[in-house]
Input
Amino acid sequence: IESAGINSLRGIGRNIYCYDTYHIYTNYVRRLTGVDGALTIRGIYRGSRNRAKSYDKLHYRYFNSQEPDVTRNDYTYSPGSNDRYELAGDFTAPIGKHLNYGVSYTYTHKQDNNNNILYRLDRLASPDYPLGWLPSTADSLLLAKDLENSKDETYLSNTHNIEGSLSGRWDKFEFSTTLSAEFLNEKIFFVRDTERHSPQRSVMLWSPFAQLKWKPVKGGEIRINYSGSVDISDLSEKIPFTDTSNETETVKNNNNLRNGWRNNFGLRGNYFGDKRGDSYSMYANFGFINNDRANTMLVDPATGKTTLSSVNVSGNYNYNVGFNTQQPLD
Output
């Protein structure tokens, strides 16, 4: 290990986590006999309050540099709250004998408050103090606060989503299509020591979906579907923040990430025999994304320390195929 120049981290820790959650849901449905349709209105509130504490004793070694070993005694306090309000309505109705259409609107407001306060207890006393040790006074604890890696972050967003759908059903053929348009406005208030950042953005997100179903024989069907969606990075990436809380690695945000587009295709066939009770199914799925995001790691050859970040890449894809069957034993 030493000849390869690999750094190491050894540690023990204890975590305490408290979590309270709240959920309120209301729903109203009315049948409209004049157009043979239905109107649904719903309101939702989801909230949570959390308090996390962690105690960590960490020992870092640097094999390929002249830096001495580092022993740390960390205490992290992370209070937070999350609130989500949603108001939605949708209307569905038939068109003639075989077709149905629907429209819906959803408004969502989110607010997330998350603090992360790191205290370096080894700055106050010997790092050999037992795990879970804290100074006797609050003033002493403030002296150990790591201002560079402690942060206060508030996330706000408002979303307007409009969706339209059209479907049809016949004896041997079915189809369904959906197009969703979502207008997202979001903002972050970020505080670290004397720094203040408040990045924001407004973006339109599109999500099409289409599916065809064909029943060529009794008990059998074939389905083909496609879905697409805009893939965006977290708004927090636009904050010029560098995390140096780990002695062996640095994590840097990348505010130049571009949006991506996800494509997913699916093909599935099923057959069930009434007489014997046997069944067969085959499926194949394929997906790819333009401007995907990947994590990168740069290693400093002099110290062995690493720098982690995210970049855009293209050419990523995934696929899977499968077959299964069920047969009676008698």
Summary: Residues 293 and 311 are 6 Å apart (CA to CA). Helices lie at 138-143. The chain has a mean pLDDT of 89. The longest strand covers residues 70-95.
